[in-house]
């Protein structure tokens, strides 16, 4: 993707899981996405059958402003 002047950078993540009859959906929206948002994000789910955990990481790569100006 390419960020254009005036664009707002967003990050949206959607997860889905569970038996089809009881499938659950959860999501996170980071708006606007900034350098300080980078890191490890964790999802924890618990029900009568037990629990599950998942980790995901976000790395924000900042564009060189001089390169952006030359576009």
TrEMBL record:
Record keywords: Secreted, Signal
Main localization (coarse): secreted
Gene3D superfamilies: Immunoglobulins
Boundaries of every Immunoglobulin I-set domain copy: 29-60
UniProt record, GO biological process: regulation of cell growth; regulation of signal transduction
InterPro entries cross-referenced by the UniProt entry: Ig-like_dom_sf (IPR036179), Ig-like_fold (IPR013783), Ig_I-set (IPR013098), IGFBP_rP_mac25 (IPR011390)
A molecular function GO annotation: insulin-like growth factor binding
Alphabetized PANTHER family for the sequence: INSULIN-LIKE GROWTH FACTOR BINDING PROTEIN-RELATED, INSULIN-LIKE GROWTH FACTOR-BINDING PROTEIN-LIKE 1
Protein name per Swiss-Prot or TrEMBL: IBPL1 protein
């Amino acid at each position: 993707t390419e960020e254009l002047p005036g664009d707002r950078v967003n990050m949206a993540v959607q997860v889905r899981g569970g038996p089809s009859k009881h499938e659950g959906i959860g999501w996170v929206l980071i708006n606007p996405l900034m350098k300080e948002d980078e890191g490890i994000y964790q999802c924890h789910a618990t029900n009568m059958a037990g629990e599950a955990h998942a980790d995901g990481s976000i790395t924000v790569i900042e564009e060189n402003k001089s390169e952006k100006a030359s576009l």
